[in-house]
Amino acid sequence: MGIRFDSVTVAYDGNVVLDALDLRVEPGEVMALLGPSGSGKTTALRAVAGFVRPASGRVFLGDRDVTDLPPHRRGIGMVVQSYALFPHMRVQDNVAFGLKARRVAKAEIGPRVAEALEMTGMAGYARRYPRELSGGQQQRVAIARALAIRPDVLLLDEPLSALDARLRSGMLAELARLHRELPEVSILYVTHDQVEALTLADRIAVMDQARLKDCGTPQELYRTPRTEFTASFVGNANLLPVTVGDGGVSFAGGMLKVDTGGAAPGARATLCVRPHLVGLGSGPNQLTGTVAEIQWRGSTHRLYVDVDGHRIMADLRELKEPPVHGRPVTLHFAPEDATLLTAGVSGDG
Amino acid sequence: MLVHSRKGKWTAWAVFFVLFLPLFALPLLVILAASFATSWPGVLPAGATTAHYAAATRGEALQALVTSLVTAVTASLLALIAGTWAALAGAALGRRRRAVLDALFMLPVAVPPVVVGLAVLVAFSQPPFLLNGTRWIVIVAHTVLVTAFAHQSVSAALERLDPACEQVAASLGARPAYVLWRVKLPLLLPSLGAAAGLCFALSMGELSATVMLYPPDWTPLTVLIYAATDRGALFAGSALAVVLMTTTLLVLLAVSRVRTKASYR
Ligand SMILES: Nc1ncnc2c1ncn2[C@@H]1O[C@H](COP(=O)(O)OP(=O)(O)OP(=O)(O)O)[C@@H](O)[C@H]1O
Ligand SMILES: [Mg+2]
Description:
The complex is a heterodimer of chains A (349) and B (265). Chain A is an alpha+beta fold and 349 residues long. Chain A has helices spanning 41-49, 91-101, 106-119, 135-148, 165-181, 194-200, 218-223, 228-233, and strands at 3-12, 15-25, 30-34, 56-61, 64-65, 76-79, 153-157, 186-191, 203-208, 211-216, 238-244, 249-251, 254-256, 268-273, 279-280, 285-296, 300-307, 310-317, 328-333, 338-341. In chain A, a hairpin with a 2-residue loop joins strand 1 and strand 2.
């Protein structure tokens, strides 16, 4: 079952925290809601779950308008930021809660609890209390509890934010596997971590300051972002202030050959170049500057180069003889690896 | 204790004993001594007899103890129900209306118990609310007096409750009544236990409102103790007081054991 936001606005005490959100999650799709803290991601989720009433706009689950339905009649599986396991119940009773509340036949509850625990790898912990589990285990129980009711829609609010980096990548893989096992469930996944969004999502909705900024597949947003905000939030980006010229742009006194896509000559724009697409040495589009900082990251070197007062990042495969701090270097990038952003340029006011 | 140095610890204990012994422990110890005494020749009571206890645990005294227990248990339960109900209802109200409700429930604490006693007496002495002369007028007065504490402690606990638990429960398909019964009340259980203990102890020791209201066939133990001291029977009164204290403590202990079992954090 899909989810549809139809111009949903949410305000707390007259303070708009979600501004006319239009968004559609297709049946079986994983949609990531990506944005900085306070951008309204949780609020959007709460509107779907029914914990907050939109000031205007409608929320649809499938074809059903659920805007006026109380939470318990929406049939949604939800995992909140804090997990909110019931501390007074064993793991198995936590998972069985939704089934008992919905008066599922007693004989059916046991097998379904076992199935949900099996799916999340928590079968061995059924008789524990939540306080006896680690953060990652609690999170799995929270997911099992949400899955046990076999929802058509699963809402996940930063489910991995409490976990350390290693557990997190493990859980990411498990969530991907879960979705392969349950391909018909639509998932709305809130995160402020771009790696999670890029890894898991079929599409990403980028939010900032209560608004939807951009929406598209991870590849679209990464390769051809439409705004500076998207470019910097989905992956790292060099954002160079440029002026559109004829067949290219001028930057730091020189011309760079890029596809201007019909932008008016003389207009100010931003050129987005991903750090891993920047090379060392001479090439098509050359930039010369001094090495401001160099970081060894195991398999790569990250170079920060000051070009005419602008700092440019380059991620290079580990260098045998890395350049020396303070020395002049030349960088280059291919014309097709740059994206010209004409919308939402800072300095436009 | 938060004091770490050895000297600091000794000082803390010394201060504790200097304050605690004369203020709290000594009077109680003197009562304990008096309850076994036959005479009071000097500073301390003297002699050793269990006759006062024999009297304090049968007949009229036993009857009074049972009266006190029944009154306290009933009043505590009523207070717990009313206080919890009001706290739950209050949590759903806006901030201002909630402040009004809280103030209303605090009123019986702000007003002296004698005044509450008088108010209850006046209010329930005329038909159709004629409780005067029955045990119910005592129970009603006690309930009015202790509900404030139940309401207070349950409200505070409700405020600390994670709203996410409730919301997740609802999203899983639980109707509000089911959420209340299966999630909220179990999570409140430790606080309900604490509130019950407090109400019970307060009711067991209540005197000032009770003396204005009690009918002859419903004499709580506190009234009996008061009567004993009033007619100069200090030793008999002391024995009754020790019985009252011990019973209350035992019940509180039992309640707190239930509470430890119910707490899960
Ligand atoms: N109950 C509330 N009352 C008033 N303001 C609120 C309430 N809940 C959220 N807000 C405000 O709404 C805005 C959006 O909050 P929201 O929780 O949706 O952010 P978020 O994108 O989920 O952030 P995070 O990544 O930190 O979880 C914030 O500015 C927050 O202060
Ligand atoms: Mg959030």
